Amino acid sequence: MTVPRLALFDLDHTLLPLDSDYQWADFLARTGRAGDPVEARRRNDDLMERYNRGELTAEQAAEFMLGLLAAHTPYDLAAWHEEFMAEVIRPAITPAAIELVDRHLRAGDLCAVVTATNSFVTAPIARAFGVPHLVATDPEYAAGRHTGRILGTPSFREGKVVRVRDWLAGMDLKLADFAESFFYSDSVNDVPLLEQVTRPIATNPSPTLRAIAQRQGWEVIDLFDHTQDAKS
Question: One GO molecular function term (predicted)?
Fold first, then answer.
């Protein structure tokens, strides 16, 4: 069997010029769906600042972000996410990002979005890009509601490597099976997975990742400028 190439894409600030997790929480706050909007925005900003400093854990992020899901019914969340896609996400999708993904899809590559942001927020975004597979932090779901907890290993830092390996193993594949494997990311948090592929590509990289890429001789591409809730 001929194994195709593997193409993995981070999402926030890589395919999108924004952070979908941050923007989802902000959307809920400004539309009155996140309890105290002032407090929700304060916590949202605090999480982003801690992420930028490299001090945020997946569990700390989940306490707030997945708590927003647990506070509402799946019916309401689905309806609000449709608004979110129309108002925030679709206008932010650029032709350059679509072309990058399409180039791999047309080549027959095995493609996946690999993101730390939870799968509730990101599954519709991955579909909008036409990417058939998603490796994301999974929110726990029980008795018809989100619980506010993470299910399994979060897709964050070294956890992305674990989750990608598990996903491939489900297809009886491993990273070493691919003669060429790509990972596109903007963030220094993704260095563990960037180091595992044959073609690490720093995409719209933060200053920290750009410096690492230059030292390592990794390819650097810029699809757009950082304009919203920039990450380091």
Answer: metal ion binding
- Helices H, strands E: what count in the chain? 9, 7
Domain that holds residue 82: 5-221
The span from the CA of 157 to the CA of 166, in Å, is 15
Is residue 227's pLDDT more than 50?
no
Work out the number of other CB atoms within 10 angstroms of the CB of residue 38: 9
Please write the tens of the pLDDT for every residue from 171-220: 999 999 999 999 999 999 999 999 999 999 999 999 999 999 999 999 99
Burial environment of residue 53 by CB neighbours within 10 A (0 to 12, 13 to 18, 19 or more) = exposed
CA angle at 212 for the pair 210 and 217, rounded to the nearest 5°? 95
Q: Does the annotation count 26 as an active-site position? A: no
Task: Give the span between the Cα atoms of 101 and 105, in whole angstroms.
Answer: 6
Active site residue 10: yes
Per-residue pLDDT band for 58 (boundaries 50, 70, 90) equals: confident
**Sign of the dihedral through C-alpha 229, 118, 76, 80:** positive
The single residue of 12, 19, 109, 229 carrying the catalytic annotation is 12
Answer yes or no: are the C-beta atoms of 54 and 209 closer than 8 Å. no
Assigned domain for 226 exists: no
Question: Which residue, among 217, 180, 185, has the nearest Cα to 199 in the 3D structure?
Answer: 180
pTM of the model: 0.94
Task: Identify residue 25 by its one-letter amino acid code.
Answer: A
- Identify whether 33 is part of a domain: yes
Assigned domain for 86 exists: yes
